[in-house]
Protein backbone atom coordinates (compact mmCIF):
# COMPACT_ATOMS: atom_id res chain seq x y z
CA UNK A 1 0.00 0.00 0.00
CA UNK A 2 1.11 3.60 -0.52
CA UNK A 3 -0.23 7.04 0.42
CA UNK A 4 -1.70 8.89 -2.57
CA UNK A 5 -3.03 12.45 -2.82
CA UNK A 6 -6.48 12.28 -4.44
CA UNK A 7 -8.07 14.97 -6.67
CA UNK A 8 -10.00 16.43 -3.71
CA UNK A 9 -6.76 16.83 -1.76
CA UNK A 10 -7.41 13.94 0.63
CA UNK A 11 -4.70 11.36 1.36
CA UNK A 12 -5.66 7.70 1.01
CA UNK A 13 -3.92 4.35 1.16
CA UNK A 14 -3.97 2.74 -2.30
CA UNK A 15 -2.76 -0.71 -3.35
CA UNK A 16 0.57 -0.33 -5.18
CA UNK A 17 0.71 -2.75 -8.14
CA UNK A 18 4.18 -1.51 -9.03
CA UNK A 19 5.56 -2.50 -5.67
CA UNK A 20 4.03 -5.95 -5.97
CA UNK A 21 5.67 -6.38 -9.35
CA UNK A 22 9.07 -5.26 -8.09
CA UNK A 23 9.08 -7.13 -4.80
CA UNK A 24 6.85 -10.08 -5.67
CA UNK A 25 7.82 -13.72 -5.41
CA UNK A 26 7.54 -13.73 -9.20
CA UNK A 27 6.52 -10.95 -11.61
CA UNK A 28 2.88 -10.10 -11.09
CA UNK A 29 2.73 -11.86 -7.70
CA UNK A 30 2.80 -10.75 -4.07
CA UNK A 31 5.96 -10.98 -2.02
CA UNK A 32 6.34 -14.21 0.00
CA UNK A 33 5.88 -12.41 3.30
CA UNK A 34 2.57 -10.97 2.05
CA UNK A 35 1.30 -14.49 1.31
CA UNK A 36 2.49 -16.11 4.52
CA UNK A 37 4.62 -14.97 7.45
CA UNK A 38 7.03 -17.92 7.50
CA UNK A 39 8.08 -20.52 4.91
CA UNK A 40 9.95 -23.79 5.19
CA UNK A 41 12.40 -24.75 2.45
CA UNK A 42 10.08 -27.56 1.31
CA UNK A 43 7.14 -25.16 1.07
CA UNK A 44 9.21 -22.69 -0.92
CA UNK A 45 10.45 -25.36 -3.36
CA UNK A 46 6.92 -26.68 -3.83
CA UNK A 47 5.60 -23.17 -4.40
CA UNK A 48 8.30 -22.39 -6.94
CA UNK A 49 7.86 -25.68 -8.81
CA UNK A 50 4.25 -24.80 -9.62
CA UNK A 51 5.48 -21.98 -11.84
CA UNK A 52 8.27 -23.86 -13.58
CA UNK A 53 7.91 -26.09 -16.65
CA UNK A 54 10.57 -28.34 -18.08
CA UNK A 55 9.62 -28.45 -21.74
CA UNK A 56 9.36 -32.00 -23.11
CA UNK A 57 8.13 -33.19 -26.46
CA UNK A 58 5.24 -35.69 -26.38
CA UNK A 59 6.09 -38.29 -28.99
CA UNK A 60 2.65 -39.70 -29.83
CA UNK A 61 -0.86 -38.35 -30.12
CA UNK A 62 -3.63 -40.03 -28.14
CA UNK A 63 -5.83 -40.26 -31.22
CA UNK A 64 -4.58 -42.95 -33.60
CA UNK A 65 -6.24 -41.43 -36.64
CA UNK A 66 -8.69 -38.95 -38.13
CA UNK A 67 -11.03 -39.83 -41.00
CA UNK A 68 -12.68 -36.90 -42.76
CA UNK A 69 -15.87 -37.04 -44.80
CA UNK A 70 -14.75 -36.01 -48.28
CA UNK A 71 -17.93 -34.08 -49.14
CA UNK A 72 -18.02 -31.76 -46.12
CA UNK A 73 -14.27 -31.15 -46.26
CA UNK A 74 -14.55 -30.44 -49.97
CA UNK A 75 -17.20 -27.82 -49.24
CA UNK A 76 -14.96 -26.18 -46.65
CA UNK A 77 -11.91 -25.98 -48.88
CA UNK A 78 -13.97 -24.81 -51.88
CA UNK A 79 -15.10 -21.81 -49.84
CA UNK A 80 -11.47 -21.01 -49.01
CA UNK A 81 -10.58 -21.27 -52.70
CA UNK A 82 -13.07 -18.54 -53.53
CA UNK A 83 -10.69 -16.18 -51.73
CA UNK A 84 -7.49 -17.93 -52.85
CA UNK A 85 -7.04 -19.10 -49.24
CA UNK A 86 -6.40 -15.50 -48.18
CA UNK A 87 -9.45 -15.44 -45.89
CA UNK A 88 -9.01 -17.57 -42.78
CA UNK A 89 -11.99 -19.45 -41.41
CA UNK A 90 -12.77 -22.11 -38.81
CA UNK A 91 -15.42 -24.67 -38.01
CA UNK A 92 -16.22 -27.41 -35.52
CA UNK A 93 -16.01 -31.08 -36.47
CA UNK A 94 -18.80 -33.46 -35.48
CA UNK A 95 -18.59 -37.22 -35.63
CA UNK A 96 -17.75 -40.25 -33.51
CA UNK A 97 -14.78 -41.69 -31.62
CA UNK A 98 -13.54 -45.29 -31.42
CA UNK A 99 -13.21 -45.97 -27.69
CA UNK A 100 -10.23 -48.31 -28.10
CA UNK A 101 -8.04 -46.29 -30.48
CA UNK A 102 -9.48 -42.79 -29.94
CA UNK A 103 -9.66 -42.63 -33.73
CA UNK A 104 -11.96 -39.82 -34.84
CA UNK A 105 -14.48 -40.14 -37.67
CA UNK A 106 -15.70 -36.75 -38.88
CA UNK A 107 -19.14 -36.67 -40.51
CA UNK A 108 -20.09 -32.97 -40.48
CA UNK A 109 -18.66 -29.47 -40.12
CA UNK A 110 -20.41 -26.52 -38.50
CA UNK A 111 -19.00 -23.03 -39.08
CA UNK A 112 -20.15 -20.69 -36.28
CA UNK A 113 -20.73 -16.96 -36.91
CA UNK A 114 -17.42 -15.21 -37.59
CA UNK A 115 -15.84 -12.31 -39.40
CA UNK A 116 -12.65 -12.44 -41.41
CA UNK A 117 -10.08 -10.10 -39.87
CA UNK A 118 -6.52 -10.29 -41.25
CA UNK A 119 -5.34 -7.95 -38.49
CA UNK A 120 -6.38 -10.26 -35.65
CA UNK A 121 -4.07 -12.97 -34.35
CA UNK A 122 -6.38 -15.75 -35.54
CA UNK A 123 -7.27 -14.14 -38.88
CA UNK A 124 -10.95 -14.13 -37.86
CA UNK A 125 -13.18 -12.93 -35.06
CA UNK A 126 -15.59 -15.45 -33.55
CA UNK A 127 -18.99 -13.87 -32.94
CA UNK A 128 -21.67 -14.79 -30.44
CA UNK A 129 -23.59 -17.82 -31.68
CA UNK A 130 -27.28 -17.89 -30.70
CA UNK A 131 -27.60 -21.38 -32.21
CA UNK A 132 -24.68 -23.01 -30.39
CA UNK A 133 -26.83 -25.02 -27.99
CA UNK A 134 -29.25 -26.02 -30.76
CA UNK A 135 -26.40 -27.35 -32.92
CA UNK A 136 -24.95 -29.32 -29.99
CA UNK A 137 -28.31 -30.89 -29.18
CA UNK A 138 -29.02 -31.63 -32.86
CA UNK A 139 -25.67 -33.41 -33.14
CA UNK A 140 -26.50 -35.46 -30.04
CA UNK A 141 -29.87 -36.46 -31.55
CA UNK A 142 -27.97 -37.74 -34.59
CA UNK A 143 -25.52 -39.73 -32.46
CA UNK A 144 -22.70 -37.26 -33.09
CA UNK A 145 -20.51 -35.13 -30.84
CA UNK A 146 -17.88 -32.44 -31.28
CA UNK A 147 -14.61 -34.26 -32.00
CA UNK A 148 -12.37 -31.47 -33.26
CA UNK A 149 -12.06 -28.19 -35.09
CA UNK A 150 -10.80 -27.18 -38.52
CA UNK A 151 -9.27 -23.97 -39.81
CA UNK A 152 -7.98 -22.77 -43.16
CA UNK A 153 -5.02 -20.46 -43.71
CA UNK A 154 -2.89 -18.99 -46.53
CA UNK A 155 0.26 -20.87 -47.64
CA UNK A 156 3.14 -20.82 -45.14
CA UNK A 157 6.81 -21.54 -45.34
CA UNK A 158 7.84 -25.18 -45.01
CA UNK A 159 7.92 -26.41 -41.40
CA UNK A 160 5.71 -23.60 -40.07
CA UNK A 161 2.62 -25.48 -38.95
CA UNK A 162 0.65 -23.32 -36.54
CA UNK A 163 0.77 -19.82 -35.06
CA UNK A 164 0.79 -19.22 -31.31
CA UNK A 165 -2.87 -18.12 -31.39
CA UNK A 166 -3.79 -21.39 -33.14
CA UNK A 167 -1.80 -23.37 -30.56
CA UNK A 168 -3.64 -21.62 -27.73
CA UNK A 169 -7.04 -22.17 -29.34
CA UNK A 170 -6.28 -25.85 -29.96
CA UNK A 171 -5.24 -26.29 -26.32
CA UNK A 172 -8.30 -24.44 -25.01
CA UNK A 173 -10.63 -26.60 -27.09
CA UNK A 174 -8.87 -29.80 -25.97
CA UNK A 175 -9.20 -28.65 -22.35
CA UNK A 176 -12.91 -28.05 -22.87
CA UNK A 177 -13.39 -31.43 -24.55
CA UNK A 178 -11.44 -33.27 -21.83
CA UNK A 179 -12.95 -31.21 -19.01
CA UNK A 180 -9.45 -30.46 -17.73
CA UNK A 181 -5.85 -31.47 -18.32
CA UNK A 182 -6.59 -35.01 -19.46
CA UNK A 183 -6.10 -37.21 -22.51
CA UNK A 184 -8.63 -36.53 -25.26
CA UNK A 185 -9.34 -37.66 -28.83
CA UNK A 186 -10.15 -34.05 -29.83
CA UNK A 187 -8.20 -33.09 -32.97
CA UNK A 188 -7.14 -29.96 -34.81
CA UNK A 189 -7.33 -30.11 -38.61
CA UNK A 190 -5.79 -27.45 -40.79
CA UNK A 191 -6.15 -26.97 -44.53
CA UNK A 192 -4.15 -24.84 -46.93
CA UNK A 193 -3.02 -24.88 -50.55
CA UNK A 194 0.36 -26.01 -51.87
CA UNK A 195 2.51 -24.68 -54.67
CA UNK A 196 0.87 -27.18 -57.03
CA UNK A 197 -2.55 -25.68 -56.27
CA UNK A 198 -3.80 -28.77 -54.43
CA UNK A 199 -5.35 -28.43 -50.99
CA UNK A 200 -3.73 -30.36 -48.16
CA UNK A 201 -5.34 -31.44 -44.89
CA UNK A 202 -3.27 -32.22 -41.77
CA UNK A 203 -4.43 -33.29 -38.32
CA UNK A 204 -2.73 -32.60 -34.98
CA UNK A 205 -3.13 -32.67 -31.25
CA UNK A 206 -1.30 -30.49 -28.74
CA UNK A 207 0.56 -32.15 -25.87
CA UNK A 208 -0.65 -32.59 -22.31
CA UNK A 209 2.04 -30.16 -21.17
CA UNK A 210 0.75 -27.56 -23.61
CA UNK A 211 -2.76 -28.03 -22.22
CA UNK A 212 -1.43 -27.60 -18.69
CA UNK A 213 0.51 -24.44 -19.55
CA UNK A 214 -2.50 -22.90 -21.29
CA UNK A 215 -4.73 -23.84 -18.34
CA UNK A 216 -2.27 -22.05 -16.04
CA UNK A 217 -2.09 -19.07 -18.46
CA UNK A 218 1.64 -19.64 -18.79
CA UNK A 219 1.62 -19.26 -22.59
CA UNK A 220 0.90 -16.12 -24.56
CA UNK A 221 0.68 -15.08 -28.19
CA UNK A 222 4.21 -14.36 -29.39
CA UNK A 223 5.66 -11.78 -31.75
CA UNK A 224 7.40 -14.49 -33.78
CA UNK A 225 4.84 -16.41 -35.87
CA UNK A 226 6.07 -19.89 -34.94
CA UNK A 227 6.68 -19.32 -31.21
CA UNK A 228 4.66 -18.89 -28.02
CA UNK A 229 5.79 -16.45 -25.37
CA UNK A 230 6.14 -17.57 -21.75
CA UNK A 231 4.28 -15.39 -19.26
CA UNK A 232 6.70 -13.48 -17.00
CA UNK A 233 5.27 -15.16 -13.91
CA UNK A 234 6.44 -18.57 -15.16
CA UNK A 235 9.75 -20.22 -16.02
CA UNK A 236 10.23 -22.54 -18.98
CA UNK A 237 13.34 -24.74 -19.11
CA UNK A 238 14.12 -25.94 -22.62
CA UNK A 239 17.19 -28.08 -23.28
CA UNK A 240 18.57 -27.10 -19.86
CA UNK A 241 18.18 -23.35 -20.41
CA UNK A 242 15.67 -20.76 -19.31
CA UNK A 243 13.63 -19.77 -22.33
CA UNK A 244 11.14 -16.91 -22.79
CA UNK A 245 9.76 -18.42 -26.00
CA UNK A 246 8.87 -21.95 -27.07
CA UNK A 247 8.73 -23.17 -30.65
CA UNK A 248 5.17 -24.25 -31.41
CA UNK A 249 6.24 -27.49 -33.07
CA UNK A 250 7.38 -28.77 -29.63
CA UNK A 251 3.73 -28.91 -28.62
CA UNK A 252 2.38 -30.59 -31.77
CA UNK A 253 1.75 -34.28 -32.42
CA UNK A 254 0.77 -35.45 -35.89
CA UNK A 255 -2.41 -37.52 -36.24
CA UNK A 256 -2.67 -39.87 -39.27
CA UNK A 257 -5.38 -38.65 -41.63
CA UNK A 258 -7.62 -40.31 -44.21
CA UNK A 259 -10.89 -39.68 -46.02
CA UNK A 260 -14.19 -41.53 -46.31
CA UNK A 261 -17.63 -41.06 -47.80
CA UNK A 262 -20.32 -40.95 -45.13
CA UNK A 263 -22.85 -43.76 -45.18
CA UNK A 264 -25.42 -41.60 -43.38
CA UNK A 265 -24.99 -37.95 -44.27
CA UNK A 266 -24.75 -35.88 -47.43
CA UNK A 267 -23.39 -32.35 -47.79
CA UNK A 268 -25.32 -30.44 -50.46
CA UNK A 269 -27.31 -27.76 -48.63
CA UNK A 270 -25.64 -24.33 -48.23
CA UNK A 271 -23.59 -23.97 -45.06
CA UNK A 272 -24.85 -21.84 -42.20
CA UNK A 273 -23.34 -18.46 -41.29
CA UNK A 274 -21.57 -17.75 -44.57
CA UNK A 275 -21.57 -14.21 -45.95
CA UNK A 276 -20.69 -15.20 -49.51
CA UNK A 277 -22.37 -17.51 -52.02
CA UNK A 278 -25.62 -19.44 -51.63
CA UNK A 279 -27.67 -18.89 -48.48
CA UNK A 280 -29.97 -21.16 -46.52
CA UNK A 281 -33.47 -20.57 -47.92
CA UNK A 282 -36.72 -22.40 -48.68
CA UNK A 283 -35.80 -22.26 -52.37
CA UNK A 284 -32.56 -24.11 -51.64
CA UNK A 285 -34.53 -26.65 -49.64
CA UNK A 286 -36.86 -27.16 -52.61
CA UNK A 287 -33.89 -27.55 -54.97
CA UNK A 288 -32.45 -30.30 -52.78
CA UNK A 289 -35.58 -32.22 -51.82
CA UNK A 290 -36.99 -32.13 -55.36
CA UNK A 291 -34.41 -34.75 -56.32
CA UNK A 292 -36.36 -37.30 -54.30
CA UNK A 293 -37.42 -40.24 -56.46
CA UNK A 294 -34.78 -39.62 -59.12
CA UNK A 295 -31.17 -40.75 -59.57
CA UNK A 296 -31.58 -43.17 -56.67
CA UNK A 297 -32.35 -40.45 -54.09
CA UNK A 298 -35.00 -40.98 -51.43
CA UNK A 299 -36.58 -38.22 -49.34
CA UNK A 300 -34.79 -39.35 -46.18
CA UNK A 301 -31.45 -39.48 -48.03
CA UNK A 302 -31.79 -35.84 -49.06
CA UNK A 303 -32.97 -34.85 -45.59
CA UNK A 304 -29.84 -36.38 -44.04
CA UNK A 305 -27.84 -33.19 -44.45
CA UNK A 306 -26.51 -31.55 -41.28
CA UNK A 307 -26.83 -28.05 -42.74
CA UNK A 308 -30.41 -28.66 -43.88
CA UNK A 309 -31.30 -30.03 -40.46
CA UNK A 310 -29.84 -26.90 -38.81
CA UNK A 311 -32.11 -24.85 -41.08
CA UNK A 312 -35.15 -26.99 -40.22
CA UNK A 313 -34.52 -26.41 -36.51
CA UNK A 314 -35.62 -22.80 -37.07
CA UNK A 315 -38.95 -23.81 -38.62
CA UNK A 316 -40.03 -27.00 -36.83
CA UNK A 317 -40.60 -27.71 -33.16
CA UNK A 318 -37.14 -28.54 -31.88
CA UNK A 319 -38.27 -30.51 -28.84
CA UNK A 320 -40.87 -32.74 -30.50
CA UNK A 321 -40.26 -32.82 -34.27
CA UNK A 322 -36.48 -32.91 -34.58
CA UNK A 323 -35.86 -35.97 -32.35
CA UNK A 324 -38.26 -38.06 -34.47
CA UNK A 325 -36.72 -36.89 -37.75
CA UNK A 326 -33.20 -37.58 -36.45
CA UNK A 327 -34.23 -41.07 -35.30
CA UNK A 328 -35.30 -41.95 -38.85
CA UNK A 329 -32.01 -40.55 -40.21
CA UNK A 330 -29.91 -42.58 -37.77
CA UNK A 331 -31.89 -45.76 -38.28
CA UNK A 332 -33.31 -46.20 -41.78
CA UNK A 333 -35.34 -49.15 -40.53
CA UNK A 334 -37.55 -46.59 -38.75
CA UNK A 335 -39.48 -44.84 -41.54
CA UNK A 336 -40.07 -41.10 -41.44
CA UNK A 337 -43.68 -40.31 -40.61
CA UNK A 338 -45.60 -39.28 -43.73
CA UNK A 339 -46.87 -36.23 -41.87
CA UNK A 340 -43.35 -34.84 -41.63
CA UNK A 341 -42.79 -35.39 -45.33
CA UNK A 342 -45.93 -33.39 -46.08
CA UNK A 343 -44.97 -30.56 -43.70
CA UNK A 344 -41.39 -30.27 -44.95
CA UNK A 345 -42.38 -30.56 -48.62
CA UNK A 346 -45.01 -27.88 -48.09
CA UNK A 347 -42.43 -25.59 -46.49
CA UNK A 348 -40.23 -26.07 -49.54
CA UNK A 349 -43.09 -25.30 -51.91
CA UNK A 350 -42.98 -28.74 -53.53
CA UNK A 351 -45.86 -30.21 -55.51
CA UNK A 352 -46.57 -33.80 -56.49
CA UNK A 353 -44.88 -36.94 -55.23
CA UNK A 354 -41.70 -36.96 -53.15
Describe this structure in words.
With 354 residues, the chain is of the alpha+beta class. It is built from 12 helices and 18 strands. The strands form 5 sheets. An 8-stranded mixed beta sheet has the order 17-11-10-9-5-6-4-18. A 3-stranded mixed beta sheet has the order 3-14-15, with no helix packed on it. Strands 12-13-16 form a 3-stranded antiparallel beta sheet. α6 crosses α7. The longest helix has 15 residues. It is elongated. The protein starts with a strand and ends in a 7-residue tail after the last helix.
Short description:
The protein has helices spanning 17-23, 32-35, 41-49, 70-81, 132-141, 164-178, 208-215, 282-289, 299-303, 306-312, 321-330, 338-347; strands at 2-5, 11-14, 52-54, 66-69, 89-97, 104-110, 114-116, 124-126, 145-152, 187-193, 199-206, 219-221, 227-230, 235-238, 241-243, 245-247, 252-255, 257-260. It contains 12 helices and 18 strands. The model is unreliable at 1-5 (pLDDT under 50).
Amino acid sequence: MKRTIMKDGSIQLVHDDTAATKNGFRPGMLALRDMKKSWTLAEFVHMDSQFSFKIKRQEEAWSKGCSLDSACCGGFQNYLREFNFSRQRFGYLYGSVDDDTMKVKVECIYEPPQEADPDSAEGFIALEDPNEEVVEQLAEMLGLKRVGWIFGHPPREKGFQMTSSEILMAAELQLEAADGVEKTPFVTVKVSVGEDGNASFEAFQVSLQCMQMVAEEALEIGEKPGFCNVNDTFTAIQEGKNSKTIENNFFLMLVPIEQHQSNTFICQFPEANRDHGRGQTHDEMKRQLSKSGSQGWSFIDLLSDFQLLIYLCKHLDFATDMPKICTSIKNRDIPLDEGYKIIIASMAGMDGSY
